[in-house]
Amino acid sequence: MLEEKISAAYELLRDEDVDAFNALRAKGSETDLTKVKFRSFDLKGANLSGLDLSGSSFKNADLRGLDLSDCNLEGCSFLNAKVSGVAFPSNIDPQEIILSLEHGTRIRLNV
Questions:
Q1: Closest C-alpha to 74, from 32, 107, 97, 100
Q2: What domain count does the chain have?
Q3: 79 near 60, Cβ under 8 Å?
Q4: Which of 11, 19, 69, 107 could form a disulfide with 87 if both were Cys (CB 3.0 to 4.6 A apart)?
């Protein structure tokens, strides 16, 4: 089940204050972004590197240019998300990404 997280990090992303979010992460603040709704969020420039984003929904989100290569994306959905230039983890088959973008299916990892 998706959640509305009550955390400073999530609120900064919801308010599209990417610079403040990145500064918070740089300070080493704990960032729990599992099972969250990122519906229509503009996340361009956000430092999501190394985060566990499992179970989250990125429906209509703008992720262009993000490096998600070391993120846990298991169970994420990317329906209609903008993903130009996104680096996805190598353990996700490209077909999984296409199915998620076009049909909203949840990402399964190759193990």
A1: 107
A2: 1
A3: yes
A4: 69
Q: What are φ and ψ of residue 36, in 5° steps?
A: -115, 160
Spatial distance between the Cα atoms of 24 and 18, rounded to a whole number of angstroms: 10
- As a three-state string, the secondary structure of 90-104 is CCCCHHHHHHHHHHC
CA 100 to the chain's CA centroid:
13
- Give residue 19's domain range: 1-111
Give the global pTM. 0.92
Over residues 59-94, the pLDDT tens digits come to 999 999 999 999 999 999 999 999 999 999 999 999
Residue found by looking up tokens 């420039």 in the block:
45
